[in-house]
Design a protein that fits this description.
The chain has 20 helices and 34 strands. Helix 7 packs antiparallel against helix 8 (326-343). Helices cover 35% and strands 19% of the residues. The radius of gyration is 45 Å and the shape is elongated.
């Protein structure tokens, strides 16, 4: 879990221009004072969207743009010139930027106001995948902003910027219709231009937008009424949403099918996940639509091949097995029909913006149907039995798709596709996270998976056997935990999920009590290893230990003071210039949290060392201080919001107007006026009392915190003095200098080295004495033989080895044999010469001596030569042995 490094920096606090991103506008204050008795409808609040280091913040009806890098640099530059912020307030200290903006000469860089055409307060900002569209949501309307380049916004112009806005569904998303609960950009839309809107009355619409075609913003390309789809029996029925806005009769589905939130998994998920829309109902039910595709969609390169492999294997399994049910066989045929329609298409190549290259665009298959089957409601296996009503009522849903299955896709191939480390170590199951009103998070696993399903055609629905039963799907409840204490619960709260940029298996939970970081990685890798492992022995025990273990990690990174404003869902930025930043906001203040993420650095590699050092993590120093969030006084103490004047104005124009011009009399009308006035004034005074009490408690706590900081600073000073040698001894002697400390440490090291050396020598001697023993007779004889050879070869003066007179040494025998060989060769030459002379002079005369036959001479010569070879081999062997002994 990342450690909190610091909270809101100076360049986001007053009087910096970064604080203007979050300040409440005058129009918002004025409208809230006029409508003192109106209570806004509860709903999700996602008022911050980001594009790189640029943030778009919705405040009331305005959108404020800011580049955090420019805001930080400009503020730090100003502080460097002015010497920092002074604590003593002077007339020009906190109004520098306002005066510069009024002069129109040097407006702060990185800040701009965007004017919007909305009529209500903005609830949500949703950025498109390619950062070129911004969906602006109120409670009932949706507007699309065509975002310009940052160079058009980052100017010194102080006038509000007016980009091009389009109203999405001018006759569909209006105040007379149902409220909009979610707007999600489809992960498979062409260049991120497909938007999916989900209304409270369970109607899903797909909009395929184009900046050059204004009619694409008027009508949805596909509209599905989930209430009709839930009761559908065949794919040929009409499931489109009703165009009538007057039919508001009560039905059980209007309560059971009230949508709380919807979401898509990430684009890089495996299987059918990128085209699966998960819908969470307020009553606690969860549904899924798969495949939900726009008319034109652009899949990732590996999506269609992986789906084709899984569909072919499914069809082969259903055909080979006679025990397959009718529903499974029909589903395999429908998926094969869908994939055949897709294979018959010729994809269109479209240029992708930026450096993404080109993408292949396909058309949505028309067979077996464009409207998928509504899967659900899912049953929850191992669900807690003691759930309360507020734990069942859902508010948000967050789905993490399964990892791509590349092993089946690349089976039989020589090469392997390169995958990220996170994708390789991911989970092969989809994780469904549900968030209830009470702040309880429920982690569920889609063990059965969600595949593409359609309703049967009208003909096949009639051929359906009567014994066939509907297939029930379920989610396995893996873990449940609370993020809010019972004392922190507030009425009409709307908790929200937010994704994290560091890992897809971590996310943030935002509620009125604070922001909590949840990390699922501790059990994801362990569960995946069990699922992919071949060993079944002890698997039940290991999974039981995994389930009963600590499970997910969670940490409250920010706690909101009780009674403060509602928090917006945060955005997480990880940039080299800014760092790891979590940014949220209240109605008038920023909430910024900086995390300290340790960076891995390479250890130095020397040329002489053949070992390559791996990455090592540099240890961090011990933390001696803990960051605290910046305290912001309640907005009641500084705002101009006052409901009493608005109530008086309303009284002057109401039916009690004559009472203001008469004397006060005891009557029911006067009692009603005083009672209503007491309610308005008491609510104002109550808020002021709470704000003042919170400020007083904070001032008291500040004294204790300051005392603790002084104590910790004294402890740190003592530790530093101890290290540097500046601390005093017990007798208050003079401080020891650094040179003396260094010299004493060197002397101690030398003495320690001498002790280690002497100890090593003693150990060597002990080992030598322990291993000494007498030589055996064979060893002694071998030593004497070696010495004799040494004396004979090297020519020692004294020959101490006893040599037998009968045995001659090999080299002496070798010399004698050489002499005999030379004499025999010379005799043979003389005989040949005489024979040659005799043949020349005449016929050979008989020799006076004994004649030797030729075969005997040849045999003798062969015997002599074999003896010579043998002796030469023996001499060579002796020489080699002596050389080895000498070297040893």
């Amino acid at each position: 879990m990342p450690r909190v490094k610091s909270f809101a920096p100076s360049w986001l606090n007053e009087p910096s221009p970064g604080h203007k991103l979050f300040e409440s506008s005058n129009d918002e204050t004025k409208s809230s004072s006029l409508a003192y008795n109106k209570k806004p409808k509860s709903g999700p609040r996602r008022n911050i969207a980001r594009r790189g280091t640029e943030v778009f913040v919705a405040v009331g009806k305005q959108i404020r743009w800011g580049d955090l890098v420019d805001l930080k640099e400009s503020w730090e530059t100003k502080q460097a010139h002015t010497g920092g912020v002074r604590f003593k307030k002077e007339p020009n200290d906190f109004e520098v930027y306002d005066e510069e903006a009024a002069n129109g000469n040097s407006a702060p860089e990185g800040y701009r106001i965007i004017k919007t055409p909305v009529a209500e307060d903005i609830r949500q900002l949703v950025m498109s995948p390619n950062n070129d569209f911004l969906a602006v949501l109120t409670s009932h309307t949706v507007h699309i902003c065509i975002l310009p380049d940052s160079s058009h916004l980052n100017t010194h112009d102080t006038t509000p910027f007016k980009p091009k806005f389009y109203t999405l569904g001018p006759t569909t998303h209006v105040t007379s219709r149902s409220a909009v609960v979610s707007a999600i950009w489809h992960p498979l839309g062409v260049n991120g231009t497909a938007l999916v809107t989900v209304t409270e009355d369970a109607v899903v619409r797909i909009w395929e937008l184009s900046a050059t075609d204004r009619w694409s913003f008027d009508a949805a390309t596909l509209a599905i009424d989930l209430k009709r789809l839930a009761d559908g029996t065949c794919v040929d029925q009409d499931f489109s949403a009703s165009v009538s806005a007057t039919n508001k009769a009560f039905s059980p589905d209007s309560f059971d099918m009230e949508v709380a939130a919807a979401c898509f998994p990430a684009k890089n998920s495996g299987g059918w996940s990128p085209m699966t829309l998960w819908v969470a109902m307020t009553g606690g039910d969860v549904y899924a639509l798969c495949p939900l595709l726009p008319k034109r969609w652009a899949p990732p390169p590996t999506l269609i091949p992986s789906l084709s492999v899984s569909i072919v294997s499914r069809v082969a399994t259903t055909e080979d097995s006679p025990d397959v049910s009718y529903e499974d066989r029909l589903l395999a045929q429908q998926q094969l029909q869908w994939m055949s329609d897709l294979d018959n298409q010729e994809p269109k190549i479209v240029e992708a913006p930026g450096a993404d290259g080109e993408v292949e665009v396909y058309s949505r298959p028309a067979r077996p149907g464009i409207v998928p089957k509504l899967q659900g409601p899912f049953n929850f296996d191992l669900n807690p039995e003691d759930e309360q009503d507020d734990e069942v009522e859902l508010k948000d849903i967050y789905v993490i798709g399964e990892k791509p299955n590349m092993s089946d896709l690349m089976m039989g191939e020589d090469e392997e596709l390169a995958m990220d480390e996170e994708e390789e170590n991911g989970l092969s199951l989809s994780i469904v996270c549900l968030l209830s009103t009470s702040g309880q998070v429920k982690i569920c696993l889609a063990t059965e998976g969600v595949e593409a399903e359609w309703l049967p055609s009208k003909i096949k629905s009639k051929l359906k056997p009567s014994s066939a039963t509907a297939r029930t799907q379920s989610l396995l409840t893996f873990q449940t935990f609370d993020t809010v204490k019972p004392a922190e619960l507030t009425p009409d709260s709307w908790p929200m999920f937010s994704e994290d940029v560091t890992s897809k298996y971590s996310f943030y939970v935002t509620n009125p009590a604070g922001i909590t970081l949840v990390n699922l990685e501790p059990w994801v890798s362990r569960l995946e290893s069990e699922l992919q492992g071949d060993s079944e022995a002890g698997a039940d025990f290991r999974i039981d230990v995994l389930v009963q273990g600590h499970g997910s990690e969670r940490e409250r990174v920010f706690t909101q003071p009780r009674g403060m404003n509602v928090l917006s869902a945060p955005v997480v930025i990880r940039d080299q210039d800014i760092g790891h930043l979590l940014l949220s906001a209240t109605h008038n203040q920023p909430i910024a949290i900086f995390f300290d993420t340790p960076e891995l650095e390479l250890a130095p590699i020397t040329r002489d060392s053949p070992i390559i050092h791996e990455q090592v993590e540099i240890p961090e120093p011990e933390v001696v201080w803990h960051p605290r969030p910046v305290f912001h006084p309640s907005n009641v103490l500084v705002s101009n919001k006052n409901a009493v004047p608005a109530w008086v104005d309303l009284l002057k124009t109401g039916r009690r107007r004559p009472l203001l011009q008469q004397e006060i009399r005891l009557s029911m009308a006067t009692l009603e006026v005083f009672t209503e006035g007491h309610k308005v004034a008491s609510s104002e005074v109550f808020e002021i009392q709470n704000a003042v009490a919170e400020l007083f408690r904070k001032c008291e706590a500040l004294q204790f915190e300051l005392r603790d900081q002084l104590i910790k600073a004294g402890e740190v000073k003592k530790r530093i003095d101890t290290i540097t040698g500046d601390d005093l001894g017990d007798d208050d002697d003079d401080p020891i200098s650094i040179n003396e400390l260094t010299r004493s440490r060197i002397d101690q090291a030398q003495r320690r080295q001498e002790e280690l050396t002497s100890r090593m020598e003693r150990i060597k001697k002990k080992l030598g004495r322990a291993t000494t023993r007498d030589l055996s007779d064979k060893e002694k004889a071998w030593v004497e033989e070696v010495k004799g050879f040494e004396n004979s070869i090297l020519g020692s003066e004294v020959d101490t080895s006893p040599v037998d007179s009968k045995t001659r040494q090999p080299w002496k025998r070798f010399d004698e044999i050489k002499e005999l060989s030379d004499s025999l060769l010379s005799q043979a030459e003389r005989l040949q010469r005489r024979q040659r002379e005799a043949t020349e002079d005449g016929p050979a005369s008989p020799a006076p001596g004994v004649r030797i036959p030729a075969d005997i001479r040849k045999a003798k010569m062969a015997q002599v030569m074999s003896l010579l070879d043998r002796e030469s081999m023996m001499v060579d062997a002796v020489k080699d042995r002596l050389e080895r002994l000498t070297v040893g």
